[in-house]
Amino acid sequence: MSKFLGIDVGTSSVKAVLLDERQFIVAEASVALTVARPHPLWSEQNPEDWWQATLGAVDRIREKAPRDWLGLAGIGLSGQMHGATLLDRGGRVLRPAILWNDGRSSAECAELQRRIPDFLAHAANIAMPGFTAPKVMWVANHEPDVFAATAKVLLPKDYVRYRLSGAYVCDLSDASGTLWLNIAGRRWDEVLLEGSGLSRAYMPDLVEGSEPSANLSTDLLASWGLAGRRIPIAGGAGDNAASAVGIGAVSAGRGFLSLGTSGVLFAVTDRFVARPERTMHAMCHALPGRWHGMSVILSAASALDWVARLTGHAADIGGLLTKAEAFAADSTRVRRAPIFLPYLTGERTPHNDPSATGLFAGLTAEHDAAALAYSVLEGVAFAFADGLDVLDAAGARPTNTMLVGGGARSAYWAQLIADATGLTLDVPESAEVGAAFGAARLGMLAVEAGTEAELLAAMPIRASFSANKDLAWLKLRLERYRALYRAELTAR
């Protein structure tokens, strides 16, 4: 029976899963990574660490399932997006990769938009330090010798692909996060490249995420006990698109809400949609003829962690959630709860405001840890409601939404988000299916192990949360929430 390997090059670890033809997980492994922060706002990793972690994860898979490993037929890749990995003409890394959460390149964002007057028409996204282009411009401005030696710019997973195969290739979903891609046309954009001081020669080739991109190198085939074989590597996907493939969010109207450290609302479309002025991310999906709109909030479960530490519940977040639910059961008290703005690290959608701050409004002496915890849960739910409004305005509102991430374990929070957004949220049996699983599915498609309909079925549902109808009081609180941000912005 054929087996399929999915590799996810994350920020905190490289994860690998080995699937069989029925998509049962035969073996999985994870190798931790560290992030270097040598200066304020900087966030970097050594690409060699990704490679060594990949080798380590594969070695563990081979140790756990040696016989199954010999059936390897295809590989898929996913990874953290936006990271700038600079290589010279010999394929050697020139400096540590600048990661997605690096904030040093704000000036370059403004510079890029000045250079290209119709920037939004080309990029479909506003320029932010998280994207790849301003990072490379920062290198040009501050490390000119490194920039002069640069011959190729790769994203993290594509550097691993290069080490696996020797090929320079990127998929369209990951390329969407560079600010160099024509999202509607699914091709590199010469105007965006020129505005960044680059050309097409610096870029890898482009493929769809479900297409073959390269083959595993002869040297690796020999060292991994697979000599004489031909093992294709799929184009793969950025981490969110790979996660969508993993849960079956692959057709128009489907999407997911990820309640993790940050929050993501992801909606699949069958056409290009954009709202850059409201900080919606417009990107290609990992499959041909599909795109996605994405709203991002920067503090989701991390806001709950914060209030738990603040109130002495860091070791008992479950207990704090129980207290918050009990507080909300009193209809009089919950209507008088503080309003919380969850902008503890700024905000992305819809404000694009790195200076936005968190706020409790309406505190009284009667409010305790339970009241604060409720307000935090509600504030995050309202942030998702704002993100949904942006998708709605773009014509990308999801009609079928999976709830995933660590926060999905709280049924109360799931219901509160459903109430605040009006979405029906379906929790899959495995709400934390990772990007590596979706990558393995793309590996199956690349070798034609089945059709999309056969291989990309949605996960079975274990719970579903629909919005309650009598929620006029919650809508009033949402209006107050939005007014608070406007007032705080005016007061700056």
List keywords for this structure.
single chain, 492 residues, alpha+beta, seven-stranded mixed sheet, five-stranded mixed sheet, 24 strands
List the helices and strands and how they pair.
Blueprint: E1 3-9, E2 13-20, E3 25-32, E4 44-45, H1 47-64, H2 66-69, E5 72-79, E6 85-87, E7 97-98, H3 106-115, H4 119-123, H5 132-142, H6 144-149, E8 152-154, H7 156-165, E9 169-171, H8 172-175, E10 181-182, E11 187-188, H9 190-195, E12 205-207, E13 212-215, H10 218-223, E14 232-234, E15 237-238, H11 239-247, E16 254-259, E17 263-269, E18 281-284, E19 291-297, H12 301-310, H13 317-328, H14 331-335, E20 339-341, E21 359-361, H15 369-393, E22 400-404, H16 411-421, E23 425-428, H17 435-446, H18 452-455, E24 461-465, H19 472-491
Parallel strand pairs: 1-5, 5-15, 9-12, 16-22, 22-23
Antiparallel strand pairs: 1-2, 2-3, 4-7, 6-8, 10-11, 13-14, 16-17, 17-19, 18-19, 20-21, 23-24
Structure in words:
This protein is of the alpha+beta class and 492 residues long. The chain has a seven-stranded mixed beta sheet. The chain has a five-stranded mixed beta sheet with strand order 3-2-1-5-15. Strand 2 and strand 3 form a beta hairpin. Helix 11 packs across helix 17 and helix 13 (317-328) packs across helix 15.
